Amino acid sequence: MDKMRKMFGRTTPEEEVKKWTRQLRSEQRKIDMQITRIRREEQKVKMSMKQAAKQNDTVAVKMLAKELVRSRKAVNRMYTAKTQMNSVAMQLQNQLAQAKVAGGLQKSGEIMKEMNALVKVKEVQQTMMEMSKEMAKGGIMEEMMNDTLDAALDDDISDTELEDEVNKVVEEVTQNQMAGAHVGAGKLPQKQQQQVVEEEDDEDEDLMERFNALKS
């Protein structure tokens, strides 16, 4: 016991595992709250899309569909993070059981893999980075390289994938109210097409600011 306390400072591996497990559970609860807020906002976006579709406002429908696609991507990302956190928690318990025989926590490739993935999830990034550093000090995983930490941001959806997803969402939410009309500048009067192209990027940024505010 004294040897194990020396390795972890004033705490034992059991105390460290309990602390990490509590942090993981806390982050999972926060994720659940974020998902609930996003789901509520999605319902509002769907209602706005239906209203815009009735008015044949193709630009508004497209922009709202983009917002919905991005929010769904965020929710899927957070559900995946919850699963990865569960995996880490189970691996920590396995490590703790083995520590009683080995005399201390051993390096775990599975924990390293899951933590590498979690530090790239922006919703839990800061907490996971701090936890990773603690785990590295405790000898349970290797210290992450700087390039891994610097790249700890989610890759955005590609333009092609986004366009495909937007069209699917438009059909789903509007129930083909927009059938026969491509969602975008192409179906607007010719004199308005250039203006839509110029304004679209600014509108995307505004929508992303609104969505990010939901998660803060």
From TrEMBL:
Region (Disordered): 175-206
Superkingdom classification of source: Eukaryota
InterPro entries: Snf7_fam (IPR005024)
Compositionally biased intervals (Acidic residues): 197-206
A single BP term in Gene Ontology: vacuolar transport
Database matches in Pfam families: Snf7
Protein name (database record): Snf7, putative
Gene source species: Angomonas deanei
Taxon lineage: Eukaryota, Discoba, Euglenozoa, Kinetoplastea, Metakinetoplastina
